[in-house]
TrEMBL record:
A zinc finger (C4-type) spans 58-73. SMART domains: TOPRIM. This is Recombination protein RecR. It comes from Candidatus Roizmanbacteria bacterium RIFCSPHIGHO2_01_FULL_39_8. GO terms for molecular function: DNA binding; zinc ion binding.
Length: 205
């Protein structure tokens, strides 16, 4: 590594910090960058530079967007009365890839995880409850991951939503993704057929 020019070495060292990238792959990618046309690199550098300042949370669902409201929430063809609650933005991509779902989303940006000191107030549950209170909702699909923390998060939200249902006479359905998803797995890695099975077979929760 010391034999590399400094700029190339800094890029390789940065790439090595990315998840799933070892030193060899990082070096290979850095060399790949070197071979790209300068216009591609400038475009990439510009996108990286503005990544933090341009990207913000959708004011409805907390998905990532460059506008006030994300394209999914703005899409009139989607059913805004069906809300799938997911832990992370990447989970939305899993649903969207297979074209298996036409409702909207709510992103929690985490899950309840007492061992790591993450409580309900640290993720966007309150925002979901406010949204449910102030809009017309037919069904909430709880699509947190099927592991211990995901289940605990789904249970907590279900209890809060059931309270709302009783108090406000809202009468929406609360469902949870069903079979097909491996226990202890992560939605991010589920293929769309598995997700389709899970969403078709969802149960009252
Ligand atoms: Zn949105």
């Amino acid at each position: 590594m010391n034999s590399l020019p400094n700029n190339l070495k800094q890029i390789a060292l940065f790439l090595e910090r990315l998840p799933g990238i070892g030193q060899k792959t990082a070096n290979r990618l850095a060399f790949y960058f070197l071979r790209l046309p300068e216009s591609d690199l400038k475009e990439f550098a510009k996108n990286i530079t503005f990544l933090k300042t341009k990207t913000k949370f959708c004011n409805v669902c907390m998905n990532l967007t460059e506008e006030e409201t994300c394209s999914i929430c703005l899409d009139k063809k989607r059913d805004s009365g069906v809300i799938t609650v997911v832990e992370e933005v990447l989970d939305i991509l899993s649903f969207e890839t297979g074209n298996i779902y036409s409702g909207v989303y709510h992103v929690l940006h985490g899950r309840i995880d007492p061992l790591n000191h993450i409580g309900p107030e640290d993720i966007y549950i309150e925002k979901l409850l406010t949204r449910v209170k102030t809009s017309k909702v037919i069904e909430i699909i709880l699509a947190t991951n099927p592991d211990m923390e995901g289940e605990a998060t789904a249970m907590f939200i279900k209890n809060q939503l059931s309270g709302l249902n009783k108090l406000n006479g809202k009468g929406f359905k609360i469902t949870r993704l069903a079979y097909g998803l491996p226990i202890g797995g992560s939605l991010e890695y589920a293929d769309y057929m598995t997700l389709r099975k899970a969403i078709e077979g969802r149960n009252s929760y």
